[in-house]
Amino acid sequence: MDGTVQTMNLETLENLRLELRRGSLVLAVLAALRSEQYGYTLRKVLADQGLEIDEGTLYPLLRRLETQGLLASEWREHEKRNKRFYRLSAEGEPVLDQLLAEWRSIDASIHAVIANQNQNSHEKSANEEHENGSHPMLSAGR
Length: 142
Known about the structure:
By secondary structure, this protein is an alpha+beta fold. The protein contains 5 helices and 3 strands. Helices cover 68% and strands 13% of the residues.
């Protein structure tokens, strides 16, 4: 394979992966903030669940979600330092519920598409084997 094509495919894959991840992070952050946390503990909770997020992504996301009214925050002293604690707002709770329902629906649809494609692929393969006389059950008697 040409190195340029391979690099382009890797770049495309990385861009698609980041796009998919972006929407997932919003959902994960909202869900994690059902219980109040400050930024560092939120990053740790997400990382412990396999969702690494750097500060340059997390804090702008938290500010945007708060501006949209989905999060509430307040500054408090914690361990002798002022920290900003975030939590899902009352307005954010029904939005999170709707997003989770949408996520589950999309997930179920994707699983159905994959299962259907796997089934079609298996049937096509079995039909080709049968047409070529190479089906295991047909070959056993030879």
